[in-house]
């Protein structure tokens, strides 16, 4: 069983994961203050933001927009089934393209953390 799970993880890492899922990302052209408010809201209300902490696997690219996209996507993936939307007062939108750094745990599991680039 462990070999199967490891094989699945390696396959997804090599080929990329695509389920037709929607990703929540921060919009271009939004000011840094508004993006920071979205990060603060998402991280304070259920998103797993450990990946964008300094030395975290998704700290780079170290831009407020990339960190915002990571945070709002984490929030959206965790909360969409209970009615959460991807708007964040107009700073975010749904797309079929994943954020710059995505995690397998944001897509499939809640307890594993493997960066996929």
Automatic annotation (TrEMBL):
<keyword id="KW-0732">Signal</keyword>
<dbReference type="GO" id="GO:0009506">
    <property type="term" value="C:plasmodesma"/>
</dbReference>
<feature type="signal peptide">
    <location>
        <begin position="1"/>
        <end position="20"/>
    </location>
</feature>
<dbReference type="Pfam" id="PF07983">
    <property type="entry name" value="X8"/>
</dbReference>
<dbReference type="InterPro" id="IPR012946">
    <property type="entry name" value="X8"/>
</dbReference>
<keyword id="KW-0325">Glycoprotein</keyword>
<keyword id="KW-0449">Lipoprotein</keyword>
<feature type="domain" description="X8">
    <location>
        <begin position="22"/>
        <end position="103"/>
    </location>
</feature>
<keyword id="KW-0472">Membrane</keyword>
<protein>
    <submittedName>
        <fullName>Hydrolase, hydrolyzing O-glycosyl compounds</fullName>
    </submittedName>
</protein>
<keyword id="KW-0336">GPI-anchor</keyword>
<dbReference type="GO" id="GO:0098552">
    <property type="term" value="C:side of membrane"/>
</dbReference>
<dbReference type="InterPro" id="IPR044788">
    <property type="entry name" value="X8_dom_prot"/>
</dbReference>
<keyword id="KW-1003">Cell membrane</keyword>
<keyword id="KW-1015">Disulfide bond</keyword>
<dbReference type="GO" id="GO:0005886">
    <property type="term" value="C:plasma membrane"/>
</dbReference>
């Amino acid at each position: 069983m462990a070999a199967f799970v490891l094989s699945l993880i390696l396959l997804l890492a090599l080929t990329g994961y695509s389920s037709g899922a929607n990703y929540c990302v921060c919009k271009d052209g939004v000011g840094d203050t508004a993006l920071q408010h979205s990060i603060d809201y998402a991280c304070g209300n259920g998103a797993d933001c450990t990946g964008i902490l300094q030395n975290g696997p998704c700290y780079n690219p170290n831009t407020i927009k990339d960190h915002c996209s990571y945070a709002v996507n984490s929030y959206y993936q965790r909360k969409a089934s209970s009615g959460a939307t991807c708007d964040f007062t107009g700073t975010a939108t749904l797309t079929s393209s994943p954020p710059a750094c995505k995690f397998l745990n944001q897509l499939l599991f809640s307890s594993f953390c493997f960066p996929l680039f």
